[in-house]
Description:
The chain has helices at about 15-40, 45-55, 55-70. By secondary structure, the protein is an all-alpha fold.
Amino acid sequence: MEKEEEKMEFPEMLEEEEEEEEEDWITAARLEILEYLLRRYGNLRVKDLAEILGCKPAVIQPLLKRLEGWGR
């Protein structure tokens, strides 16, 4: 008498949801780092901030606008 292997079932996450969660985490981290850098070092150029974070200035600009909108 052979035992059938029991399979553990996990809820499947949609790839899109995983990407959103990863993007949200990355965005939150970038916002915190940007806020720290601006408070610590003052007025830095978008180009400099992008270089520090290893991304393009086009990624930084909307984040800065969001921080500004929050009054930070």
